[in-house]
Amino acid sequence: MKTKTASLKIASKQLVENIKNPGIRMAFWTHFVTQPTTTSVSLLWAVPFLVTAENQTHDFAALTLTSMVIFGLLTGPIIGRICARHPEKRALVVYLVVGLTTFTWLIIVSIPGQIASPLLMVFFLFISIGGPASMIAFDFTKDIVSKDRLGSANGFANVGGFLASFVMMYLTGLVIDIVQATTGSVERYTIDAFRWGFASQLLVVAVGIVFFTLERRKHLQTSSDPGNSSNQPAV
């Protein structure tokens, strides 16, 4: 019993220390802003959007989801290689990936009517890059904290992406319900409903990128402090 109590105290202390560290908060927001677009679509919204709104077959939806996984496997090592060779470019990679996925969503919600199958496939492949890019969060944590705190730091950072994913899922569904109630449409999953629903996801991304930028700035200021003896790679 005493061992469990001691373990809880240690875990709680490490959690507080992690939250106080701007670098770990930066990792949290890295995961928050990169993962959710991939997760919210693949776990929940891809099939109703593709099959019901876009009038695609279930086979096409299955192929799209499978292709997202394969594309993630292909792009993951590339992102990892870039971050390993140029750790100072990791934040730039985060910005580029978020910019690409955001631009993709803007195109999806801007195209009137149904989208051609090849374009849908390309769009969803672009969206899938957020999954492997979210691992940059853990590349940050390993450079910022000692090994004895790495587990708790990774656990805290990992919460970011899943928190954002569930918020995105909820917002998309909420907006879809609001659109149906407002328009009086018999069908719930219409193109217009998804257009507004997916647009709401950009709010989550906007919050994430703002806080990522703020925490990165704080981390850089802390790292450049002459009194800081840590030797951390640039971000």
Overview of the molecule:
- With 235 residues, the protein is mostly helical.
- It has one domain (24-222): Up-down Bundle (Growth Hormone, Chain: A), CATH 1.20.1250.
- The protein contains 10 helices and no strands.
- The mean pLDDT is 92.
Based on the model shown, name its key terms.
235 residues, mainly alpha, 0% strand
Give the overall silhouette. Answer: elongated
Output the number of helix runs: 10
Number of domains: 1
Measured distance between first and last alpha carbons:
42 Å
Radius of gyration from the CA trace? 20 Å
- Classify the beta-strand content into a percent band: under 5%
Write down the overall mean pLDDT. Answer: 92
Largest sheet: none
CATH superfamily annotation: MFS general substrate transporter like domains
Quaternary structure annotation = single chain
Number of strands: 0
Q: So, CATH architecture? A: Up-down Bundle
| Order of secondary-structure elements | HHHHHHHHHH
Helix/strand class: mainly alpha
Estimate the helix proportion, in percent.
Answer: over 70%
Could you name the CATH class?
Mainly Alpha
Ranges with pLDDT <50 over ≥5 residues?
Answer: none
Could you say what the CATH topology is called? Answer: Growth Hormone, Chain: A
Short description:
By secondary structure, the chain is mainly alpha-helical.
